[in-house]
Write a structure and sequence with these properties.
It is a single chain. Helices cover about 40% and strands about 20% of the residues. By secondary structure, it is α/β, with parallel strands linked by helices. It has 3 domains: about 140 residues, Globins (Globin-like), CATH 1.10.490; about 90 residues, Translation factors (Elongation Factor Tu (Ef-tu), domain 3, Beta Barrel); about 140 residues, 3-Layer(aba) Sandwich (Rossmann fold). The strands form 2 sheets. The protein has a 6-stranded antiparallel β-sheet with strand order 4-3-6-1-2-5. A 5-stranded parallel β-sheet has the order 9-8-7-10-11, sandwiched between helices. Strand 7, helix 8 and strand 8 form a beta-alpha-beta unit. The two termini are about 25 Å apart. It binds flavin-adenine dinucleotide (FAD) and protoporphyrin IX containing FE.
């Protein structure tokens, strides 16, 4: 991306940002007027998608100077779009409607140079998404159908759900996937995979039903053995580099335990044991639903230490929020840290670890923007990175 294009686009985005919601609504109105059949690709309620589109634009424009990060992100996004039934032919029309909507809200500031800059930026982004999607189509299905083969309820609002994909599902321990249930067609939600890959091909998820949540309640309270769900491709960068050989610090809150349990299993499978400390926190004792299994595993595995923490309750001499417990255990400069759970806990723990001297590149977590709802405030997201 040429620097003048980046400058024009940034200036234009600053101008239209205050009217992002209207712009997005206008974009979809144009798109569905031009091609009504595209409405079927989207969920019945479009509020979340509206936010996501604007977020994607900001991310792309913000990363213009960092082509590697941009191509990795857009490649993953393009592969992921196959599950929505998006095909190459859709991209041109979406680009036209997007640029037309931006023009509509730019007023007098819109000129040919800005239009051309946007056209080139969209074409470059679309080419990366299309290229990755076409390459992926040679080796993978657009999504994986999977049958529910086990459904347990360790607590009223938590289900441990195991599924068998009909085709091989490639992933690494620590990654997540997206799930569409038969009860909410076109509504996809992210869930971490709670086990390391093994010969059985089974995948386990830990799902907590959130108040009025569509997909989580369906999976916890409605799903039964034999039901079929759809899985998107595996996503996420929270995977262990076994070559580095660093000791591993895992910090889990609630169902954030899932990807960290998978990571611990993967370390056990490799046989390349290194010290693993797993801090596991919850606001009340019933939230530590996986504790017994973990304690049993640690009895067989001298390299694994489990440190539970419950707010306002002392367990084995430890009390307080998991980030306080973490602070009490002191510096760990050469450790790799993996954090997973509610945004507040992930952000607090990341801050504690940085204060204890752990370099940011050794602190790994999934996007905190969407996991378990919105984060406490935007500046604290910045602080975590
Ligand atoms: C990378 C990633 C991994 C994730 N892994 C897991 C996982 O392993 N297990 C898991 O259970 N969830 C996980 N989530 C969260 C999951 O994707 C959904 O956001 C969650 O299940 C809610 O979806 P829903 O359709 O039930 O609720 P929605 O229909 O999306 O939300 C309904 C209402 O509930 C509110 N809400 C959403 N989340 C919460 C919350 N935590 N507490 C209170 N209110 C809330 C919403 O604001 C909305 O008002 C993960 C999210 C991400 C981004
Ligand atoms: C450069 C081009 C594009 C970009 C940057 C982009 C970006 C995004 C992003 C970031 C999401 C949210 C994904 C998630 O959070 O899981 C999304 C979802 C989606 N996109 Fe795109 N997209 C592009 C092109 C297209 C095209 C051509 C179509 C075809 C109509 C399309 C249809 C969809 C659909 C159906 C969803 C899911 C909506 C939902 O779940 O709410 N996108 N897109």
């Amino acid at each position: 991306m040429a620097a003048p294009d980046a400058e024009l686009i940034r200036a234009n985005l600053d101008l239209v940002a205050p009217r992002a919601a209207d712009l997005t609504a206008h974009f979809y109105a144009l798109l569905f007027l031009r091609e009504p059949s595209l409405r079927d690709l989207f969920p019945p309620a479009m509020d979340t998608q509206r936010d996501r589109l604007v977020q994607a634009l900001i991310r792309i424009v913000g990363d213009l100077e960092n082509a590697d990060a941009l191509s990795g992100y857009l490649g993953r996004l393009g592969r992921d779009h196959r599950k929505f039934d998006v095909v190459t032919e859709h991209y041109a029309l979406v680009g036209e409607c997007l640029v037309a909507a931006i023009a509509r809200f730019s007023g007098d500031a819109w000129d040919q140079a800005t239009a051309d800059a946007w056209g080139r930026a969209y074409a470059a982004a679309a080419a990366l998404m299309i290229g990755a999607a076409e390459a992926d189509a040679m080796v993978n299905p657009p999504y994986w159908t999977a049958e529910i083969v086990a459904h347990e309820r360790p607590a009223d609002d938590i289900a441990v759900v195991t599924v068998r994909p009909e085709q091989h599902f490639p992933y690494r321990a620590g990654q997540y996937t997206t799930i569409e249930t038969p009860w909410w067609p076109r509504v996809w939600r992210a869930y971490s995979i709670a086990n390391a890959p093994d010969d059985s091909g089974l995948l386990t998820f830990h799902i907590r039903a959130v108040p009025a949540g569509w997909v989580s309640n369906a999976l916890v309270r409605k799903a039964q053995l034999g039901d079929r769900i759809k899985l998107g491709p595996a996503l996420g960068e929270m995977v262990v580099n076994h070559d580095a050989g660093h000791p591993v610090l895992c910090v889990a809150g609630g169902t954030g335990l899932a990807p960290l349990k998978a990571i611990v299993e993967e370390i056990a499978h490799t046989g390349l044991y290194r010290a693993v400390d797993l801090f596991y926190g919850a606001s009340e004792h019933s939230g530590l639903y996986g504790l017994d299994d973990l304690l049993r595993l640690s009895q067989r595995s001298p390299w694994l230490t489990i440190r539970p923490a419950v707010d306002d309750l002392a367990i084995a001499g430890i009390s307080g929020a998991v980030s306080d417990v973490l602070a009490a255990y002191g510096p760990r400069h050469d450790w790799d840290a993996y954090l997973s759970g509610p945004p507040e806990m992930v952000l607090d723990s990341a801050r504690v670890l940085r204060r204890l001297g752990l370099p940011p590149e050794q602190i790994h977590h999934d996007p905190v923007l969407t996991r378990f709802g919105p984060p406490p405030s935007a500046d604290r997201i910045g602080a975590a990175r």
